[in-house]
Amino acid sequence: MKYLLILLTVLASLKCYSQTNADAIIGKWLKIPKEDLIIEVDKIKSEYSGKITWSKNNDMKKPVGFLILDGLSYNSK
């Protein structure tokens, strides 16, 4: 019973602190599982946007510089 109470306390505390950093999305992200794109996410004022900075096969539908994410905002809920 003691271990169950400790486990529940730890799990409850992790959920409370899991989304405290809104800017954690900023940076370069590799598309998985194909690993054929790198998307760079930036913050402009209060919105996030992402563009393709590298493409493995230079796809014309999604060229380098293509804005793939636009107008995203952080919701703490």
Percent of residues in helices comes to 10-25%
Shape: elongated
Number of helical regions: 1
Number of discrete domains = 1
Major β-sheet strand ordering: 1-2-3-4
Spans of at least 5 consecutive residues whose pLDDT stays below 50 are none
Kindly state the number of beta strands: 4
Distance between the termini: 31 Å
The portion of residues forming beta strands comes to: 35-45%
Oligomer: single chain
Walkthrough of the structure:
There is one protein chain. The protein is of the alpha+beta class and 77 residues long. The chain has one domain (21-77). Helix content is 19%, strand content 35%. It contains 1 helix and 4 strands, in the order αββββ. The chain has one helix spanning 2-16; strands at residues 27-30, 37-44, 47-55, 67-72. Strands 1-2-3-4 form a 4-stranded antiparallel sheet, with no helix packed on it. A hairpin with a 6-residue loop joins β1 and β2 (37-44). The relative contact order is 0.16.
In short:
The chain has 77 residues and is of the alpha+beta class. The protein has one domain (21-77). Helix content is 19%, strand content 35%.
